[in-house]
Amino acid sequence: MKVGLRFAVTSLLLVAFAVGCTCMQKSWGTGALAGAGVGAIAGGIATTAASNNSGAFNVGNDNEDKAVAIASGAVSGALLGALIGHCLWDREVVVAQAPPPPPPPPPPPPPPVAKKIVLRGVNFDFNKANIRPDAAGILGEAATILKDNPSVQVSVEGHTDAIGSDQYNLKLSLRRATAVKQYLVKDGVPDTRLSVRGFGKTQPVASNDTADGRAQNRRVELKIVE
């Protein structure tokens, strides 16, 4: 009698273990709980019925053995019912993940760096306004730069040393500026982009007390008009 009982309990446990292995999931919910309750009741009733009929599970009138058998049946039924209920009704809840945020926009490109245009000036002999041979190459370079930058306007500004009267030097400085402008126009720079000014001896860049200083002051400068 007890051997049959142990065999029945062991069989139920093995079945429950097999079902549990095939239905293993991550979450246990109301389906498992309901199945456990129903299985416990069914297991107890089934074991009671078996104990009242002939067969391997007949435990006769031994109340203690009968109670053990009923309890074992209830436990086995609860376990089996929980596994079946879990497999049939419980489902893993999958929470939809929010899409990742879009990547930040790339930083704006740095503003273009304005190209600095440097135009070299030229020097003149004493009391002269003609273009010297060494100045021709400098003015040719200036003409090329201006033609490559058609929006640039230039002020052509003439200067003298301190020898002579203010009025004479003012006219001489204007003649020097005009000579440079004519050279650039002849080299392809539009006349409308060039303006001329004469400053005489009012803006020296070196001392007029030396020959070298006076030579530096006899000049024409090319200035970009902003």
What does this structure look like?
Residues 1-5, 13-27 and 53-61 have low confidence and may be disordered. Strands 1-4-2-3 form a 4-stranded mixed sheet. The chain has helices at residues 2-22, 30-51, 63-89, 133-148, 166-186, 211-217; strands spanning 122-123, 153-158, 194-198, 219-225. It has 226 residues and is an alpha+beta fold. The protein has 2 domains: 29-91, no CATH class; 119-225, 2-Layer Sandwich (60s Ribosomal Protein L30, Chain: A), CATH 3.30.1330.60.
Q: What's a concise summary of this model?
A:
By secondary structure, the protein is α+β, with helices and mostly antiparallel strands.
Proportion in helices:
40-55%
CATH class of the largest domain: Alpha Beta
CATH topology-level fold name of the largest domain: 60s Ribosomal Protein L30, Chain: A
- Quickly give the CATH architecture of the largest domain: 2-Layer Sandwich
What is the strand tally?
A: 4
Output the radius of gyration.
55 Å
Number of domains: 2
Q: Could you state the oligomeric state of the chains shown?
A: single chain
Identify the strand order in the major beta sheet: 1-4-2-3
How are the SSEs ordered, and which strands pair?
Elements: H1 2-22, H2 30-51, H3 63-89, E1 122-123, H4 133-148, E2 153-158, H5 166-186, E3 194-198, H6 211-217, E4 219-225
Parallel strand pairs: 2-3
Antiparallel strand pairs: 1-4, 2-4
